[in-house]
Design goal:
Blueprint: E1 5-9, H1 13-22, E2 28-33, E3 46-49, H2 55-62, E4 67-70, H3 77-83, E5 89-90, H4 94-101, H5 103-112, E6 120-123, H6 126-135, E7 139-144, E8 154-158, E9 174-178, E10 184-192, E11 198-200, E12 204-209, E13 212-218, H7 225-238, E14 243-251, E15 256-262, H8 272-275, H9 280-289, E16 302-309, E17 324-327, E18 338-346, H10 349-360
Parallel strand pairs: 1-2, 1-4, 2-3, 4-5
Antiparallel strand pairs: 6-9, 7-8, 7-9, 10-11, 10-12, 10-14, 12-13, 13-16, 14-15, 16-18, 17-18
Amino acid sequence: MISGHIGILGGGQLARMLALAGYPLGLKISVLTSHSDDPAAQVCGSTHLGSINKEKDLRKFLEDLKAVTFESEFVDIAKVAHQLSPSTYVFPNLKAIETIQDRETQKRLLDQFKIATSSWLSVKKQSDLEQAKIVFPKGFVLKQRRFGYDGYGTFVFKNGAGDESVLNASTNGFIAEKFIAFKRELAISFVRSRSGSFLTLPLVESVQINSRCFSVKGPIQHPGIKKLERSFKKMMTAIDYVGVLAVELFDTGKELLVNELAPRVHNSAHYSVDALTCSQFEYHWRAGLDFPLPKVELKRPAFAMVNLLGEGGDIRLSYKPWGHLHWYGKNENRPGRKLGHINTLALTPSRALAVALKWRKDFRL
């Protein structure tokens, strides 16, 4: 058994699922979160109340940890580094998170390792925006460099037209990406351990509604995955990335383009809790603590996941035995909020998704 507490910065649903995956491994999990009823606090035996962006709270939380990881990339890296003990192992490493949490440096990282992604420009002022209109005359997507997720901080410009006042929405600047006419959206997660072991979780097809993940199904086949896998193994080794790295992709019909990276466990791999013999959350712990990484194995030939997104009304959960329900325990129900998800298994991805979508209708959110 690992001696000492392992910390998670953040207390939402990802931290909750990480904590639940850590206990069977004999880990003592602590979380730093704002409220005693946050999703992770409900299941974690050691909860520290405070802010992940306040140095005094970080200092108290980090002082006695054996290792620490992150629920999301939205952390102040400088503050964490300032309060971190040299004896505490951090995964992924702070430099990797700092690079990936900024969309411009993330793009530069992909370009450095020749990983295909959409063409882009840095946008800081009006003249940069005018340049983007010239370079991408058919349209582009303006993305906030930092703290954007689920469509927040993302603005579409079609044929050069869009709300230019959004330049004032962020002091961190933007990138403009060429608008991609894709056939479908895919996602994949890679895992690398401290000793360099590397593996790939199944490729999935995702469906977004209002820029939020609604469903995934898999496993999906694509001839470009082996090349992508080699490229990410090279990149993750070069930057000493440890843990799960999630990759969102555009399938154009001709090639795979990386849309975005997330240096953490990810919604697109929630299926893994029930579909694989080892979930993304357990893989993340195993990678960071350098436990052996089990071979990726499916329990059944195919799987699907559907998010339970809030609609703002009274909640009625369905307990029909059609799959696996994962409820996050959030107190506030508002439109679009991720309240939970359901996983189903079947002989084909399409069948698994059909069952999940039918089951979803029995929920009231």
